[in-house]
Amino acid sequence: VEDIYNILQISQTRRKHNPNAPPPKAKLMAAYYEKLTTLFWVSENYLFHAFAWYKYYTLCKEYNRSMSDEMKQMQASAVLLATLCIPASNSQTSKVHNQHGITSTLDDDIVKEKMARMATLLGFHTRHPTREALLSEIRSKNIMADVPDYLCSLYKLLEENSDPLVMVETARPLLDKLANEVGATTGTDAEENNDDVSDATLGRYVQPLTSVLLLKLLINLSSAYHTVSLDNVKKLTEGLDLSFDQVEKSIVLFSQNKSLSVRIDHRAGCLRFGNPELESNAMRSQLTELAKRLEIVCHVINPPDMDGAIVNKTAVFEEIRATLAEEHAAVLERKDIIAKQKEEVERLAHEKTRAEAARKAEEAAARRVEEERRLEREKRVREKEKQRKIDRELEAIEKKKYLQAMGRNTDEMTEEDLSKVDTTALAREHQKKANKVKDEAERKTREIAKRLDYMVRAVRIEELPLIKNKYNDKIKADREQYEKEVVEKQKKAKEQWEADVKEKTLLDAHSVFGYLQEFEASVMVGRKIRYKDICKAEDERAELEAEKGKVTRARKRKKDEEKRIADEEAKRKAEEEEARLAEEKARREEERRKKREEEEKRRREEDARMQRERDRKAQESAPAPSGRGLPNSGGSRYVPPSARNRGGDGGGSSRGAWGDRDRGGGYGGGRYEGGGDRWGDRGGGGGGGGGWRNDRRDGGGGYGRRDDGGGGYGRRDDDRGRDGGRYGDRRDDRRDGGGGGGGNRRW
């Protein structure tokens, strides 16, 4: 039950987090409560049996729309009867006990907690399941409307009638009718328990209802009488089909369960009912009542001093106020101690229960193992003995068979005589005789076959002429018979033809075909008039149908035109919307492209500025190279500002190999002594490298910055003038500026 409850809680938690998660199937929950009804019925827990029946009936009525009225009536009856089977208690006794706290003991608290926990685990609508609560729920849900009338009468008898003298007499026919009730209370019980049909019908509630009726009878007797003779009790309980021993045992159980305060006085031959008020209220409070009345008498005889009483009362109140916190703490501490003692008692009880269960389980396991071993040994012994017996019987049967086959009488032979006989010798002797008989039978069969062959051959030779003569006679007789039948058939056909000719002649004299044309003309006149009327009506109907068809087609064409116009308008709007969206998208793309170009341009300018700054700092900090060994160098010639941006020739500049960062000039040094390095300075159009050969003069630096007009490799031939570098500025004209050093190769 706990496992199923935990599964349902997990499912409920998942549904809180995921509303789309499916709840447990109603059919599955109905089957669960149906099994619980059987479980609690077998364990005789009528309270939870009734609550399980109520849950099962509620689920079936709510979700099983195909449930028949008969099944609904049976289930509602089962709910009511299961509730009535819960033993009723004397309300007066219960109130007195609860008033004085007699039932608020540790055991009762444990029972209540267990009941509440079980009710929660089983998903009942209340944590304190009682008979009164379930009856109230039945009345509020109007389940009594689906119950047969005789069960309603039984309910009123048990719950409303208080006359003990006619109670049993009134209930007897109702219980008899209930015992004869046929029909399964559920859809599956009748199929699963065919061997015990009564357990699946309403008749099974007769016995517990009888016990409840007896308890109700005794409670009503106790409310009306102090003593009742046993003879009168026997007379009142005659209709319950219970012996007085069973009645007496039930009375003792009711008294033990505190359902009834009664004593059996066998000496006086009567039942003595106790008065709960007398046994509890009066006896417990008589000393207190005596003290209160004596105090009143003392006050009358000797009136107290009021001033002193006030002073004493004030002192008492002060003392109470001073010790109030301490008393409160003591009460709380006592409550904690009681709770701890209660927990300790429960823990010890649980440990004792677990230890006892473990011990019993171990003993049961040991007994089970030993029993299994003993049964296994006995089984092996029985099997061996059985096998030996079977072998002896088979051997005796085989011996008898051999002896009977040999012609001996085995009826008078005993088991000892059979045991002395050798089976192998009997088998050899029997086989020998069988072979001899077989050979004799084969010899006789061959002789008979030979004799039969001779006889059949002789018979066939003798009967051959006879068969031929008989065949010829049959052919001759068949031919004569055929010729006779042909002549007779021809004669009959001629006679029939002559008769038909005479009959035709007679009929021609009385022919009606001469009058047929006049009759046909008179009939056709009326038919033509009717035909014209019908044609006229049909033409009018056709014209109306054609007119209706025209109207219908015109309306259809109008609707189609309106639909076409609407579709075209919708399509036009959709196309306009698509065009607008495309234009908007193109505009956004154009804006993003322009923005990217501007950002790219700013980034390039910033990179160029930073690179020029770095080149400038590097050139300022680097020493000028020596001009020794450079035949084509022009020394430190002055270059005017107007010519600083032009590409220089082979002559050097004031900056030497590195040149000016704003001009592409450099000297045409050796192979490895050109301006800058082979690739030039990335910051600007650095000095060009020297020619690779002697005839490559005045060459500009290779791979200068393309944006700053860096030159490519210098002039290869002498007859080429001072042309500009190859990889100059792509956006500007390639001027005469000499090649600068190699720039950023990415651009």
From TrEMBL:
Q: Compositionally biased, Basic and acidic residues: which spans?
A: 559-619, 693-737
Where is composition skewed (Gly residues) in this entry? 682-692, 738-747
Work out whether the entry's keyword set contains Protein biosynthesis: yes
Q: Which residues form a coiled coil?
A: 338-400
Residues spanning the signal sequence:
none
Q: Coiled coil as a keyword?
A: yes
Disordered: where is this region? 542-747
GO annotations of cellular component type: eukaryotic translation initiation factor 3 complex, eIF3e; eukaryotic translation initiation factor 3 complex, eIF3m; multi-eIF complex
Which domain of life does the protein's organism represent?
Answer: Eukaryota
Q: Which Pfam families match?
A: eIF3a_PCI_TPR-like (PF22591), PCI (PF01399)
> What GO molecular functions are on record for this protein?
mRNA binding; translation initiation factor activity
* Domain PCI residue range list: 72-278
Please list the GO biological process terms of this entry: formation of cytoplasmic translation initiation complex; translation reinitiation
Name of the protein described by the UniProt record? PCI domain-containing protein
Q: What is the organism of origin for this protein? A: Grammatophora oceanica
